[in-house]
Amino acid sequence: MINTGKLAGRTLLITGASRGIGKAIALKAAADGANIVIAAKTAEPHPKLPGTIYTAAKEIEDAGGKALPCIVDVRDEAQIKSAVKSAVDKFGGIDILVNNASAISLTPTALTEMKRYDLMHGVNTRGTFLVSKECLPYLEQSNHAHILNISPPLSMKPHWFSNHVAYTMAKYGMSMCVLGMAEEFKSKNIGVNALWPQTAIYTAAMDMLSGGDSSDFSRKADIMSDAAYAILVKDPKSCTGNFFIDEKVLKSEGITDMIQYACNPANADKLMPDFFLDDVYVEASKGSTENVEEGTIATLFKKIESHITPEVIEKTGAIYQFEVRGEEAGTWHIDLKNAPGKAGKGAPDSQPDATLTMDSKDFFNMLSGQLKPANAFLSGKLKISGDMRKAMKMEKLMSALKNKAKL
Asked: pTM (2 decimals)?
């Protein structure tokens, strides 16, 4: 997406802009010569996450923009009010708000601690509403006012709730702000839209959630920043109330080369789909429904065990327990933490890092490579408890073992 200069001199307040998608959007706007208010928590270097509001500010100014770093926890009303006042004092107003800050915990109800529940609802839903409310008086004064929430299209399909109801409720809260505010602010000529990725986006948060290997099956944050730019340069009077998807936005702008956004171009057609997209869910739900003959799972486990190598153990470092339902109901395990490694029927000798629950037909399809673990999880065929980061390594693990064992 080529910069047009249309955001030159505009002031954007972006929450969570010290890294990831928020920073990518900031840098894209900075190339036009925009003013960027970096509203984020990280003032001191984080032990696991790169970047601070100050390093982001330097990158923004190096890219051609002007930056104002503000220490902001979007749950803190006083900090938000202070950041908004500082933005207006320095730049004279606010034209665009990007609600990007978000918290995630992909846990089922029984495993969701209330402090995590409160964090997600405080950051995602309350934070988005509060920052929008505080920016509203200045957006009303702008002749190019936009609010863009990084949130998904709304869907009441039960499978988007069943695996992680607390996160879904909190994330949909951001989208409900779009639904309501777009209509409420229409007479004020403020465009309110949502943007969501079609595939996984590789960020520091993604690395913490599912490991560095996830980059092989993800896109760069550039696709989100290009799509956000395409939305934010439009006339807010006519562009409002939309739930945009990054790839569709760019294709509508004439950009057809999506390979450029893949972290690993060789895997451009094997990317992990993101949550909350019903059309992607339908594709993920498709797969073999053939009956599984007695003993086929046992045969697969024997092949897997015979091809466990020290390299696989070193790269994975996890113990998986599988609770299989249906025709071949039972408990199975793969130990890829303790050398020389084991795979077979029954519970593992040590505490599993992740427990995966599936029907035997889907389990066979996943082990044999006919069903991707990410797609199985998205479509509700796979339930996961325990360490989500290690569970998400199953995608690469199944591919490696499939190639070795010719499953």
From this structure: 0.81
